[in-house]
Amino acid sequence: MAVVLDLINNPRPRHPEKAHKPDSAVLPKPDWIRVKAPVSRGYAETHALMRANGLHTVCEEAGCPNIGECWDKKHATFMIMGDTCTRACAFCNVKTGLPAALDASEPQHVGEATAKLGLSHIVVTSVDRDDLADGGAQHFADTITAIRRHAPSTTIEILTPDFLRKDGAVEVVVAAKPDVFNHNLETVPSLYLSVRPGARYFHSLRLLQRVKELDPTMFTKSGIMVGLGEERNEILQVMDDLRSADVDFLTIGQYLQPTRKHAEVKRFVPPDEFKALEKIAYAKGFLMVSASPLTRSSHHAGEDFARLKAARLAKA
To answer: What are the structural domains, with CATH classification, of the chain?
Structure first.
């Protein structure tokens, strides 16, 4: 009877591939990593708008610690192509499984929501869709087009999957002319097999390089998490690899463990080490660097984009 009730209450596990893994240790969070629960009116209004338009956000699906702050300011990162990912990364809290068919009306809904929120800058990401012939590249392009139509003054930042084995996909997305093309490396190469097993480090690096080859004026961005067991010299090598690919903007944040079934936090990196990494990254030539325990790819994205543009102008 207990099994039957469990199936009724939880008909589909969020992470079926992790269900039988042993629980990992959970380190107590230090004071610098704590955030307040989201309770503001702005948060509630943003939540209502997302539900009314049937939209998903990575803020909710990935359990972002900054959701209260961002949603209070009417900032949200739209997650297109559904809420179910075909990958099973050890760090990620997004559902895994076989996704549903694409919603052809979704680009229109994202465009309308962008206009309703009055966003000056929007971030659009997605689940991995290895089941699609183009990995969802055309859906990204259609979403960018819809946002331009409904909110022509809004600048657009996209955070894409790696489009692994999807020939021509990155060309389709770049042709749609987003203002910022972001793809996260997530971690150092030595941890890919355990942390990001469905991806390939040098493929992701090549994708970022290809964006610059197609459009040298497009801003490119990437990010990594720390606290997974990486060595400092490995982080510095990732910085060098990204600069070799002419990436403009680097984000570095603390990995936070969603559940005991996910990869464990090996270490909470103190704020002064983030500041040191930020200084090194600027010295290596990045136009913009955001490095702190609570840094996430889309946190303060609008303000950071303005600083990114200013940095390019100053360099010129």
So the answer is: 38-315 (3.20.20.70)
